[in-house]
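Box 3.1. Reading complex inputs
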Amino acid sequence: MHELPVIKKVLDICLKHAEASGVRKVLSIDLKVGKLSDLEPEWMQRFFDFASKGTLAEGAKLVVERTPVVLQCEACSQKFEVDLESRQEVECHQCGAARCAVVSGREYYINNMEVL
Amino acid sequence: MGDISVIEMREGIFEDNDRLAGELRGRLRTQGTFLLNLMASPGAGKTSLILRTIEALRDEFRLGVIEADIDSVVDAEKVATAGVPVIQLRTGGFCHVDAFMVEKGLGGLGGDPLDLLILENVGNLVCPAEFDTGAAKRAVILSVPEGDDKPLKYPLVFSVCDVVVVNKLDYLELSDFDVTKFKTRVMNLNPKAEIIEVSCKTGHGIQTWASWLKREIERLKR
């Protein structure tokens, strides 16, 4: 839903690095986005194509790695991955307790980019 | 064709927003202003809870409100009628408020000292959850008619909040909302979140909500 402001940020950061390094063209951008985010990679690419027109990053491909949601049980400290898309009830995989905190899955990170 | 090379960036996409949010949090703490980021879907009762909060705390604290809407001033007018300083941010199509918009809002409110400033975020359970606004605490309202399954559908917002207000409790017996199930679903993601049950219509639970706010305002000033 908020792909456009996010993509504008991605583009700004990439162009800043690209200009500082004097590159001619950005070929691809490697991103890590946690699965707790509702961003859709397909829409991210469409918005990116639109926003990057006429820049060094025009035509670059976004490679989006969706990092898993990991919870940690408050009772036994066990960390485990969950598939929240299944909309299933969550419980600790080890002790069955319900009180768990999110330890990862909220990442929003630009890893690197391939350039010419 | 030249050689392909890789530039390592390792940079957070929201780094500049997060930096400004951190600065705002520090600035507001120094001023003794507790900023609450209030998030909920449209119609959950954000403005109603704000009006109830004004009623409950206006004699004790200096209050202010930042209203954010995609393109209207209806909520700001209601709050202004209650007699507290309010500024309306039109997000112009944006589905959330970020730290840059809050900074603008703070400028618009002038320099009057406030104890509690409530940011009414855009009605939406998805996007507002992603952006740090500089608030000291984040609250989510979930109203009974929306259903007890919302933490399963919108886990992010329930995982980043400090308090969940269950509103429209007066509607409970007309619905199949299961309060215990809802609480478990919140705890599954965020065991530290407090859950407060209210009805903005009847006033039920508003004292508990006001006490939570009072405690947080006083904690910030210590």
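In summary: The first strand of chain B starts at residue 5 and ends at 12.
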